[in-house]
Target: Sterol desaturase/sphingolipid hydroxylase, fatty acid hydroxylase superfamily
Amino acid sequence: MPGGNHAQTAKGSMEMGWVYEVWAALKGMFWGWESRLAVFYLCTTVVMIFGIWLYRGRPTSFVKFLFPREVYTHKSNIIDIQIFAINLLLGVAGIFGAVLFTPIVAKVMLSNFIEWQGTPFQPLDVTWGRSALATLIMILAMDFCKYWAHYIHHESKILWPFHALHHSAEVMTPLTANRNHPIFLLIRNLIYSMVLGTVQALVLFLLIGQIDLLTIGGANAGYFLFNLLGANLRHSHVWLSYGPVLEHIFISPAQHHVHHSSAKKHFNKNYGEVFAIWDWMFGTLYVPKGYEKLQFGVADGKGELIEQPHATLKDALINPFVESLEEATGIEMLKRKSADDATPAEGR
Model:
């Protein structure tokens, strides 16, 4: 049956194409410079942890210090791995890219700026100084955007359940950074597109006539340094503080650990990713005075841990929709242990 063979061949080609796309995504994630999970950054993280291990007087064998069994065999870490796989497949399918349209917003806004100006667009010459300023503006804009996208997911009771999945991690590894609900990623990408597209249009209109390789390379270099200097320790069992002075400028791994803490005094602190200046500016900065023993997970309004709301992959993907709908309608749908149990939106 020639027709059947042709259909089987086409199906086989599609499956191979899908496998290739997944492999390409994994390769980009572990070998590309833009992903903090790149092998190079993971290796530099190991070197940093080795230095911390030496500084702390070799409390255990280095292998146990690097890979504590209670962390990497924890059920929470298993959910991290499953969510990572789901988001990888959705990314390959183009779901997240569908709302990442920064160039389109930049083009539309630039056209509007030119129209408002009322005269033909005359781009300025690209110089090192203008390019450096454009690079700095783009880095700050990206980080500012991340701060506010993070902030609104904590402050909105309807959006919080989708971000609560990230905060329900009871142990943290570098993979926990990818423990994000698909809806959170879609909303974040939408915010990035609108804000960054507008900023890029302003940079093009006021500073330089084109976003050249120097500008893009400079912005990438900023995140290269961020990933190089301990980004993976932000989600880990290893505490690393930069000290009170630097922690008013940059968010340290220790400060992000505090952000994940279930303690009430740590609620809604340290939203920033790279820079602490936004938290400092808007009153959400918390600078630890020294090492703090923390407990991770989602807590109620009193700072007491609640029952794990995402014990399975099904819970992780479905419960946020139900909890968000509960907040929107005021109708309780999920069965909880008692009437006194708080929803994640009421605490952390």
